[in-house]
Automatic annotation (TrEMBL):
Record carries keyword Coiled coil: yes
Pfam families: DDE_Tnp_IS66, DUF6444
Protein name: Uncharacterized protein
UniProtKB keywords: Coiled coil
Origin: domain of life: Bacteria
Ranges of biased composition (kind: Polar residues): 50-61
Basic and acidic residues bias spans: 88-98
UniProt organism field: Frigoriglobus tundricola
Residue runs in coiled coils: 22-49
Domain spans labelled DUF6444: 22-92
Span of domain Transposase IS66 central: 187-429
Keyword Kinase annotated: no
Sequence segments annotated as region (Disordered): 50-98
InterPro entries membership: DUF6444, Transposase-related, Transposase_IS66_central
């Protein structure tokens, strides 16, 4: 809608009423033009929001609509499906046998001649079976005895380790089923009855969870303290506590993972998680992390790739910038994978590839900040002040260019939240964050989660020292990884 230009001065012989009417029409046209421009911008913003999916935003793939175009299939390698020649052989693990049955052929399969003797190296075929599980019940008969001197009746006290009515293994299994297998209270109760023949009410499952949370308190506190001194991938996801919104925070290091649930997504919750740590943080661009030193922060390139794809999908003047930045990220990951598999040295990567990539990315960001697309310009303008945080992974050993480790660790918790709808109380949240800390850390260290839980519960009941998630090797290396010279 293009307004017709009018001369600033109308002919003097026009009646005043006509001049006034013309001026009103001009003002009306200008107002309508502004409204149309605003509506056009608003429609473009709504269309961009409607077209958001997991490839151009932080939305999870599970939220993609059916019409969203899937990622293009990878080109065929020309190889047959399945294991390739030279791949490590995978066989079933042989266990110590409880019973051995010797089998010998009676006759030759070729000529039926009788066979005798022994094979020095017989073929082994094992049959694995789950034993019938019956509950082991220890009955304490507490006698009441009356004193012949004063007549007072005294009852024998139950030992502290038996006061709960369930042994450490039963308590640990209940915690494992709810925390690791994501079973509900009723499901856990039913499984105990069907699998173990042990009656366990849903209410008792809750009580055992709370007792397990108390047993894991020193374990989780030590794990959290350790992660504060290490480079960590940090992320947060929504949670529910008592029908109110809360947030589950995670810090992921090489060996230990720490979870916290807080009612806020603000900086105070982040400080509870990292407690003033000066180590490198790998994060997304959520504003709560902006106070971090840009030289000790790594921005997630996986998030950036989705932002670059969004620039392309929006069209307009930002499309070329998004395509150029996406190509730079492709080159970055191609060479980084070579560093990880050993075909390219880190020193060559830092001295040859990173300077050129950094120069190109900086030029494209400056061009994008001045382009005509408002959202593309805003994204590029936001990245320019923290451009140094894009390359920290090249300087610091042990830091990855993405925050994928943290996102993988919260995935289990997200699935749990979707089926349990969060927690009802502070005590429930403490169980969730502590059991998740144990599960994730044990998995990273290839330790048996159930065995660890049994040790923790037993130590809590007997007053012994709790087991630790910080292995001896990590305790000796509990220092921040050294920083190399700037690129």
């Amino acid at each position: 809608m293009t307004p017709i230009p009018q001369p600033p001065e109308l002919p003097s012989d026009l009646p005043p009423q006509v001049v006034a009417y013309i001026r009103i029409l001009e003002a009306t046209i200008a107002e309508l033009t502004a409204q149309v421009t605003g509506l056009t911008t608003r429609v473009a913003e709504l269309e961009a929001r409607l077209n958001q999916n997991s490839t151009n935003s932080s939305k999870p793939p599970s939220s993609d609509a059916p019409h969203v175009k899937p990622a293009p299939p990878k080109p065929s390698s020309g190889k047959r499906r399945g294991g390739q020649p030279g791949h490590p052989k995978a066989e079933r693990t042989l266990l110590p046998p409880d019973e051995i049955r010797t089998l010998k052929p009676a006759t030759c399969r070729g000529c039926a001649h009788p066979l005798t003797g022994d094979d020095s190296n017989p073929a082994v075929h094992q049959v694995h079976e789950v034993p019938v599980v019956t509950p082991h019940v220890t009955e304490y008969r507490c006698h009441r005895l009356r004193c012949p001197h004063c007549g007072t009746t005294t009852v024998a006290a139950v030992p502290a380790e038996a006061a709960t009515g369930y042994g450490p293994r039963a308590q640990a299994v209940a915690a494992l089923l709810t925390g690791s297998c994501r079973l509900g209270k009723r499901g856990t109760s039913q499984l105990f009855a069907d699998l173990f023949g042990l009656p366990l009410s849903p209410a008792m499952v809750c009580k055992l969870q709370h007792r397990t949370a108390e047993a894991l308190k020193p374990v989780a506190e030590e794990a959290l303290m350790y992660t504060c001194g290490q480079p960590a991938n940090v992320d947060e996801t929504s949670w529910k506590q008592g029908q109110k919104r809360a947030w589950l925070w995670v810090a992921v290091t090489t060996l230990v993972v720490a979870f916290l649930i807080r009612k806020t997504r603000g900086r105070s919750a982040f400080e509870d998680l990292r407690d003033g740590s000066t180590a490198v943080h790998t994060t997304d661009r959520y504003p709560v992390y902006t106070h971090l030193d840009k030289h000790k922060r790594q921005l997630c390139w996986a998030h950036l790739r989705r932002d670059f794809q969004a620039m392309i999908d929006r069209g307009g003047s930002g499309t070329a910038i998004g395509a150029a930045l996406l190509a730079c990220s492709d080159a970055l990951f191609e060479n980084w994978y070579r560093v990880r598999d050993g075909t390219l040295t880190r020193s060559t990567f830092r001295s040859v590839y990173i300077p050129a990539l950094r120069r190109q990315v900086g030029e494209f960001l400056r061009t994008g900040a001045a382009c005509g697309c408002a959202k593309t310009a805003a994204t590029c303008g936001e990245l320019l002040p923290v451009e140094a945080s894009l390359w920290t992974f090249a300087r610091v050993v042990g830091v990855e260019p993405t925050n994928n480790a943290a996102e993988r660790e919260v995935r289990h918790a997200v699935c749990w939240r979707k089926t349990s709808f969060g927690t009802d109380s502070e005590r429930g949240s403490r169980f969730v964050e502590r059991i998740l800390t144990v599960i994730a850390s044990c998995r990273r260290q290839k330790r048996n989660v159930l065995a660890f839980l049994i040790d923790a519960v037993t130590a809590h009941r007997t007053g012994a020292k709790a087991p630790t998630l910080v292995p001896a090797q990590a305790q000796q290396q509990n220092v921040v990884n050294p920083l190399f010279a700037n690129c």
